[in-house]
Amino acid sequence: MVRQRRAAPFLAPTQSQFLDPENNAQNPRVGSRILGRGHARRTRPLPNMSTMYISSSRTADEWTTFRKTLEAGAGTDQWQVAIVEYFHDRLETRYLLPIRAIQSCGRQVGEGFSMMTIQCALLEFLESTVQGKSYRFDAPAGSNREYSSSSAMFKSFLTRREPFRNLFTESVAEDFYRNVRCGLLHEAQTKRGWTIAAHCRAQAIIDADSKIVYRDNFFNALQLFITRYEQELLVNPNLQEAFIAKFDGLAAP
User: Could you tell me whether strands 195-197 and 206-207 are parallel, antiparallel, or unpaired per DSSP bridges?
Assistant: First the structure.
C-alpha cells in the first residue's frame, strides 16, 4: 500500500553524532562536503568480464595497490581519494542513482517497494563498513572481521546511528527487520501491517505506532548518514581501520 501524501523535505535531527555519541565527539576539522575537491570521477572502460570492479571505476586489483598508501591516522589526501573513488562512487552508481531514478518517476503507484528494498540492502552495507566486517554465511562466532547475522547488523544501524537511533527502539528495529526488510527481500512485500508511504508533513522517517515507513524521508536520512560518515572518515583512525578491513574483504577473490 502506498499512501499519496506530499510534504516538505525531510529535516533530520542534528543534536547528536551519527555514530555512537559517547565515543565520537564532533571534530571541527571535518569539512562540509567530500566530493568536488579536485577529484574527477574516472570514466569506466568497457567491462572485462574477468575483472572485478568494487566501484564504477576502480577494480579489486587497483584497491590492493592503493590500500598500501592508506594508513589509519595519516593525512587526509589519500583518504579523500579513498572516499571519492572507492566508497562514494560505489554507493552513487550502485545504489543512490538507481533509487533516485525510481523516485523521479513520481507516480506513487508502488515504486516505494523497490526503493525500500534497495535502501535495506544499502543499510546493512553501511553498518558493516562502519564495523569493518564482511558477510560470510558460515562466519565463525566471535569473528572480528566477518559476520553471518544480517539481523544483528541491520538492527545495530537502526538503533545506534543518527538520525535513526532516536526513532528505533530494539523492539521497533526487530519488527522493522522482520516485516519490512525481510518481507521485501524474500516476498517483495511488507508484512504484518507495515505500509510504505512517500513522505509526510511531520517529516518523520517512520511512524512506529501506525507501522508506516516514509520512503523519501528514509532515503534522505540515509544520505545524511553517508555525508557525515564521509566527513568523519577523513579524520577518525578507528573508522579508517574498519574501512580498510571492509574493502579488503570486498576485493578478496
Answer: unpaired
Residue listed under C-alpha cell 517483495 = 188
Domain map of the chain by residue range?
A: 74-137+147-253
Cα–Cα distance for residue pair 11/252, rounded to 1 Å: 39
pLDDT in tens, 105-154: 877 788 889 999 999 999 999 999 999 999 887 777 777 888 888 999 99
The model's pTM is 0.80
- With cell 543518527, the residue in question is 162
**Whole-number Å distance between alpha carbons of 25 and 198:** 34
Could you give the CA distance from residue 200 to residue 132 in angstroms, rounded to a whole number?
Answer: 35
DSSP track, 85-104: IIIIHHHIIIIIHHHHHHHH
Which residue shows C-alpha cell 573513488?
85
Cα dist from 84 to 24, 35, 125, whole Å: 22, 6, 17
Query: CB of 217 within 8 A of CB of 12?
Result: no
